[in-house]
Amino acid sequence: MPRMRKLIAGAVVLAALGAIVGWVLSAPRPLSQAEIATVSEGAEARGERMFWAGGCASCHAAPKAEGEARLQMSGGLELETPFGTFVAPNISSHETDGIGAWSPEDFANAMQRGISPDGAHYYPAFPYASYARMEPEHIADLYAFMKTLPAVEGKAPPHQVGFPFNIRRGLGMWKLLYLRDGPVVDLGADASEALRLGKYLVEGPGHCGECHTPRDMFGGTQYGAWLSGAPAATGPGTIPNITPGGDVGDWSEDEIAEYLNSGFTPDFDSAGGEMASVIKNLANLPAEDRAAIAAYLKQVPSLPDGHP
Fold this sequence. Notes:
This protein is mainly α. It has helices spanning about 1-25, 35, 45-55, 55-60, 105-115, 130, 135-145, 170-180, 195-205, 210, 255-260, 275-280, 285-295; strands at about 80, 85, 230, 240. The termini are far apart.
């Protein structure tokens, strides 16, 4: 009996130590003061470009919103995933129902660390794993633009997420495994400015890899299969392979750029589903941005389809 008591006591101690270590490792890790210091005062005119590049309206405008209504960030879009149904929140300038009371530091931590102003983890349905690659000045510009958008009253419904995914603290461990701010594709020192711009837009604000790259069983991006297509994150179907080895491999740079502007493919088909909303965003970018994205997509590693 004494030996059994010792074994039980030892197991309890180990469990307690494991819980403490897990609690520490899963803690939110906000931007450092040095990193916050780089977030200068933004310019709303430049921020509008980041707004459209980042696709904010696709998730945070009311479902099926058109025209000026796409600037009303009331939230409410439901994203049904294998981990539960996530509901895009109100990110309008409303002081209580939106993000109107957020500081620039609050905004930067949400965008690049997935942390709320009260220190909770955000679910990575919000693509902060890509926004982590954005430049601090662009985060500041986007914040300045968001402050000019209409204040919309009303909070979106809560997420519908079951156990164990409803334990937000566990997302800290997910971030340790998957949150990275480094580049995905090495273009080499001699890459043109256009290629570097396209890389930034695709890997960062455009967050193209969030849908077009397969994920592992824990929802982490499989970077070795970058942009090779994936099962749809929400609902049935698949997202296409957009590397040179996939569905758009025989498209020219000009044809890709035109598709990103008009939604029309070289064979006169048109974008549908969620991509139609993406096109509405990208059409607001300068033509050189779409051309840069096209140039980058022709230079990424050619891969077979990353989905069944």
